[in-house]
Amino acid sequence: MKISSIRKYSTPLFAFMMSYIPLKIGITNRIHLGNDIFEKQINELPLDLRLGLKKEFVTNFRGGVIEKYDSLSLVKLKNKLKQDTTKIFQYCFPIKEKEMAYTEPFGHFLAKRPPNRDHMGLDIFVTPYSKKPQNPITIVAPIDGIIISNKFARQTDNIIGNSTSLLGIDGRTYTFDHMARGTDYSDSIPRHKVGEQVKMGEPLGYVGSTGETTLWHLHFGVLTDSAKAKQIKDPVWLKRAQKSPYSALKGQVNPLSRKDAGEIANVLNKVLK
Q1: Inter-residue contact 203 to 96 (CB < 8 Å)
Q2: How many independent structural domains does the chain possess?
Q3: Which of 212, 245, 254, 264 is the most exposed place for a label (fewest CB within 10 A)?
Q4: What does the pLDDT read at residue 166?
Q5: Of 7-16, 139-148, 189-198, the least confident
Q6: What is the dihedral of CA 159, 91, 38, 189, to 10 degrees?
Q7: Mean pLDDT of 37-64
């Protein structure tokens, strides 16, 4: 066969092969956010690229920096969860050393705090008198999910301090506030980046006292879209939000309520009884 003939047939064949390879990669390397969330394959595409997710950085007036997905990206991500997940979920307590955990009455959801503001989560204390633990206490993911925001706070930053938010595969958002700084302990845990997928029980950081608190504890929050839809129409919640900037209408629910928070409430109540 002449060289010209080889070129005639090889060029279209090569072009066909090259056009097929990316298609093949796209099909075989999908990441599902359901039960196979961690079954990663070679050359998989990052979640951000596949879903077109966008991150943004927000700086508050005290210098704290928040890295998070924008609102449209969160909608895309939640829609993906609805498509890929089953109705069976597994949960664990959000603190690894759970035998040390307990709560105080002022640490419960909607408890009054000075200056007369409502408490929007559940405080889990890990030492008597909430002093700094001699050994770090590990915060873990209570369910499989994806990190959707991180806050890195200065020493003078506002209420929640260092914080991480996790979108669970059950569609709920879980928040972890007052997390320790990297300098609080010699063996600090690197924070997961926004967009990273984590497994139930995987370390997220250490219990700390950052933000407007001197107590070493975890402020644990649960947020749902259904609660948010009700809050923006509820006069009580609207008044609450006007009264305090920390009572924003984000869909906060009582983590100890099985009706509102789901199965994680049973896990919390079992440990904190």
Answers
A1: yes
A2: 1
A3: 245
A4: 97
A5: 7-16
A6: 40
A7: 64
For residues 117 and 33, what is the distance between their CA atoms, to the nearest angstrom? 37
Q: Contact, 198 vs 204, CB < 8 A?
A: yes
Residue type, 136: P
Strands 173-179 and 217-223: antiparallel
**pLDDT value of residue 26:** 33
Cβ-in-10-Å burial (0-12, 13-18, 19+) of 116 comes to exposed
- Is-cis flag, bond preceding 115, omega within 30? yes
| Predicted confidence (pLDDT) at residue 48 exceeds the cutoff of 90 | no
- With 50 as the cut, is the pLDDT of residue 66 above it? yes
55-59 and 65-69 strand pairing: antiparallel
For 20-42, give one letter per residue: b (16+ CB within 10 A) or e. Answer: eeeeeeeeeeebebeeebeeeee
Q: How many CB atoms lie within 10 A of CB 237?
A: 19
Return the closest-CA partner of residue 249 out of 266, 269, 224, 219: 224
Please report whether residue 58 resides in a domain. Answer: yes
CATH number for the domain that contains residue 134: 2.70.70.10
pLDDT tens-digit series, residues 165-204: 999 999 999 999 999 988 899 887 888 999 999 999 999 9
Examine residue 13 and state whether it is found in any structural domain, yes or no: no
Query: Rounded to 5 degrees, what are φ and ψ at 56?
Result: -140, 155
Specify the 3-state DSSP secondary structure of 135: coil
d(CA 221, CA 217): 13
Residue 92 tokens read as 């664990």
Give the highest mean pLDDT range of 66-70, 199-203, 242-246: 199-203
Residue 265 domain boundaries: 47-272
- Report the alpha-carbon distance of residue 201 to residue 95 in Å, rounded: 9
Residues counted in the chain:
273
> Which tokens belong to 101?
């955990």
- The answer to whether residue 14 is domain-embedded is no
